[in-house]
Amino acid sequence: MERTGADLNATKECSLQADFQYGFFTVTYSLVFILGLPGNALALYYLCQSRQRSRSSNIFFVNLAAVDLFFISLLPFRIYYHNTGNHWIFGDVACRITGALFYANIYLSIGFFTCISLDRYLAVVRPLLYVKLKYTRCSLILTVVIWITCSAIILPLILGGRLDNTGNGMRTACFENFSSSEWQNRLAPYNICALIFGFLVPFTVVVVVFPLIARRICKMKSSMHRKVALRIILFILVVCIVCFLPYNVSHLLHFMMRLDIIQDCVLSTHIYKLRRITLALVSLNSCLNPALYFIPYLSRRLCAPYSKQTYNIQNGQPTNKDPNKITSPSHLIGQQEPVVILGAKAEWAVL
């Protein structure tokens, strides 16, 4: 949520200008719309196939693709808004819906990335626990928790009053031009919760979990599975670093500037411009995410034909394959022997 250059802090004689933003937003959002709409529609169709629905983690990908598709379908409103110099003509209700969905897309995306990370962590590092949880509704519960958390952050904001306003009597802003009192009262709880629960906590989980997964994968001898898993890890890390990290760093600095914690005019101007850039770039995750869903499929097509893999798991550590022994998942639960033969398709690598 931003203010344009016309919205000046009364305590500072500092003009916040970023004339490049109008064209930059228009081009970036148009690119996301052109690439993301067919990409996410195709991905959602692919994920809803019967073969994909059988995977326990598929619910995370379906929700992520659906959120991206809904967000992208409303981008033309934002494109028109920025192309006309940040002038909103669609009314307060449309402003609340499109604005709320924009920010919800950010937090839901990184939330489902976190769920995927935890799912891969359990499958690779704690395979016995993963097999046990696979037959529960853990994935569904996590999905509901993500939606409830996002709703708890966003709904109080959009239900708390109008989000479109006229700053100078000529242009109507949407999710912008908030007064200092609004930043310190109405918007402060939203920004604090968004930074902590919408980024800091999930991003910490991603950063901690992925090195553990990568180290375990490097010990496995199935090259195809290893490549698939490492590609998934690399993709999510790149999206988080390129899209979410810069946005949330600028979000924090911008919030501190609006609370007058940062008062230097030159620094505030740079923060404002950085905020506008990262606000546009964070939307790129919506057109990049479809690549994540097809990584396993493309890897199987490009690599050797898929074959069933059997691993020895001793003290939680995968060892050499034993093609002659297979233990069904129902026999794994509660088994006490130190060596367990897990007959599986290395599901952690196939999404």
Named at the architecture level, the CATH assignment is: Up-down Bundle
Please mark out the parts with pLDDT under 50 across 5 or more consecutive residues, or reply none.
3-12, 304-311, 321-351
Helix count from the secondary structure assignment: 13
Average pLDDT level: 78
**Number of domain modules:** 1
Question: What proportion strand?
Answer: 5-15%
Number of strands: 5
Structural class by sheet pairing and helices: mainly alpha
Could you explain how this protein is built, in words?
The chain crosses the membrane at residues 20-47, 59-80, 100-118, 139-159, 188-213, 228-247, 277-298. This protein has helices at 21-47, 50-53, 58-73, 75-83, 92-125, 127-134, 138-158, 180-184, 187-217, 223-258, 265-281, 285-302, 329-332; strands at 164-166, 172-174, 309-314, 317-318, 339-344. The relative contact order is 0.15. It has a single domain (21-308), classed as Up-down Bundle (Rhopdopsin 7-helix transmembrane proteins), CATH 1.20.1070.10. It is built from 13 helices and 5 strands. With 351 residues, it is mainly alpha-helical. Strand 3 (309-314) and strand 4 form a beta hairpin. The radius of gyration is 23 Å and the shape is globular.
